[in-house]
Amino acid sequence: MKKTGAQILLESLQLEGVDTIFGFPGGAVIGIYDALLNSPIRHILVRHEQAAVHAADGYARSSGRIGVCLVTSGPGATNTVTGLATAYMDSIPVVVLTGQVSTGLIGNDAFQEADIMGITRPCTKHSYLVKDVKELARTIKEAFYIAGTGRHGPVLVDLPKDVMADSAEFNYPESVNMQSYNPTYRGHRGQIQKAFKLILKANRPLIYAGGGVISSDASEELTTFARTLSIPVTATLMGLGCFPGVDELSLGMLGMHGTYRANMAVTNCDLLIAVGARFDDRVTGKIEEFAPNAKIIHIDIDPTSISKNIRVDIPIVGDAKDVLRKINKLIQEEKGDWRSIRREWLDQILQWKNTYPLAYEQKDVIKPQYVVEKIYEITKGEAIISTEVGQNQMWTAQYYHFTKPRTLLTSGGLGTMGYGFPAAIGAQIAFPDKIVIDIAGDGSIQMNIQELATVAQYNLPVKIAILNNRYLGMVRQWQGLFHNKRYSQTHLEVSPDFVKLAEAYGAVGLRATKPEEVVPTIEKALSISKAVIMDFVVEQEEDVYPMVPVGAPLKEMLLV
Amino acid sequence: MESEILDMRHTISALVLNQPGVLSRIAGLFSGRGFNIESLCVAETLDPSVSRMTIVTRGNDQVIEQITKQLNKLVDIIKVVDFFGSEYVDREMILIKVTSESSSRAEILRIVDIFRGKIVDVTPKSYTIEVSGDENKIRAIIDLLKPMGIKEVVRTGKVAISRGSKGI
Ligand SMILES: Cc1ncc(C[n+]2csc(CCOP(=O)(O)OP(=O)(O)O)c2C)c(N)n1
Ligand SMILES: [Mg+2]
Questions:
Q1: Would you name the residues of A annotated as active-site residues?
Q2: What is the maximum alpha-carbon separation in chain B?
Q3: What separation in Å is there between the alpha carbon of A243 and the centre of ligand 1?
Q4: Complex confidence, ipTM
Q5: Residue A166, C-beta contacts closer than 8 angstroms, at least 6 positions apart
Q6: pTM metric for this prediction
Q7: Exposure class string for B104-141: b at 16+ Cβ within 10 A, else e
Q8: Measured in angstroms, how far is the CA atom of residue A76 from the centroid of ligand 2?
Q9: Most exposed of A92, A205, A231, A282 (fewest Cβ within 10 Å)?
């Protein structure tokens, strides 16, 4: 029996295990939306297509599954660009289905036509234009395969309207057969052996863990590795949660706003073991002085990440989970009293920690760090936290001790304001019973505030904690430090009354203006089974410290 | 080693799926990352679903390593080979339109003959010459014809193949 393109599309999604998609309809996809009425797939109607991609991305990051969204052609498709770029920079598996004008009209500047493949080529892992309904099933199969294998990433599938109406026999391929795409999973044995020898010899080893540990679900292996050999661990923003943040071997985040001990450990280690990380400039500071005394082992699934920014001594291309497993096997046979062997190095790190711990002083105005710390204490680190971008993001990274992978959703690579709230929606859909909190800035939250209608429509109990400093705080901080306090266009003189705004959308609004109100506000919010905005009126000109100025080596941190 | 720091010219062959958009992915990769392309030549292989591309580019070791890795990473690319340091043959074809006057005709014909070129079009005032060869040969014939007055030059860009019996 023949089926229409729209039916084939939806059945293919089901066969990929998709039960929820995020989207927004329009003329070019009206046929797909019609078929959706007869499909068991749940559709979450967002209020802006950018939010659909971020929600699919938050769904993917929190659950490890592939996030899917569906939008119309032209403006619907172009509205997905920031979402795609965000997912691309952080290697998140999402499949974005865009409507397209009918094949006969492509190239004619037809109504709501956009060359979305052309526009998004640099920010997708791959993309397809389906010109023949007979190619549709295979294309969907490949799109999911590419998104979720190798270094994960977003894949776009452009679907012309006539192809969706056309019909064909439906046979979903059982497997993918691509001669041109074969990611390497298994680490090279010889390289692993070499790395292992180096690890045994090192006096001051350090693990530098990135988002790759989370995407390959290698947290357990990493934790075993670090604990067995007593090797301290620092994580990138993307890597937070891959190793328990409360473990005594955890140094917290490194880089521009990293902890003193993490940055000092990088500078002084004699072996750096980078796992699923890419030596991003916000992490390394002045690259010539990054880990200057160390040999470097670099484990990554993407060969292009290796030796891109920094020369490494032992590159290992492969999946972090596979490589760490193999290393752990080798370690088992090695008997040594690693705790006492490491004593000197760990004592040194402890001393750094005690000299300059992360600190702030809570006086009469609410400190933003205090809010994050209390959210951490009250949720016992069990919540899924998303962030916006700016100071709110950095304070979250510093003061919320992530202990489990996939509990921090944040736009690391692109730094997308407006990411956190829709991402939280995606996570709440994936985990209806978990506490999901977007720790937001007053600026960023306004970039996708319309999604309050989405949470109202689906009764999603997402919580938003606004660290309201009436500033585009992170930019103001830079203006303060590097532009003689010439605050240009960073004062948000007018913002909505967030409490009333929440109420207007059918959510609950709470405000805290004094330190003693912080805890009751969080507790109250968590007791409400609806969406809640908590408006924390915080210290206006608090800065994020430590800070490594752009271009400076990591050891040159500004400390308060 | 010199090539670690110095920009060297590399000739890279890539087998790619013959699909719309492949070329723009490759062009985008070069432009987006600031790599340069000196020449690019593409055509179908014996298997019409696969095209072969010869790219001539320039860079130090690290840049070339990134270029080949990034090319390999594109989903539509099947195989990438950098011929640098290996035995290979490269050729380029060139069409040259040169002014011919009674005084220079004989000289032009002599040059074409020496370079084993062909005259493919003649008018009372011009010759159009076809020559193929490696870079030195192409440069030499252009230099020799310049004094006669070159009106137009079209080059195909290089194609390359490894020496020996094995294919890529
Ligand atoms: C879409 C987008 N536009 C601009 C920026 C540049 N930017 C980075 S942080 C920041 C300030 C964010 O302000 P707010 O959300 O209030 O956070 P705060 O730093 O005050 O916590 C800006 C404008 C960005 N990251 N993303
Ligand atoms: Mg702010």
A1: 49, 111-112, 161, 474
A2: 57
A3: 28
A4: 0.88
A5: A4, A5, A133
A6: 0.95
A7: beeebeebbeebebeeeeeeeebbbbebbbeeebbeeb
A8: 29
A9: A282
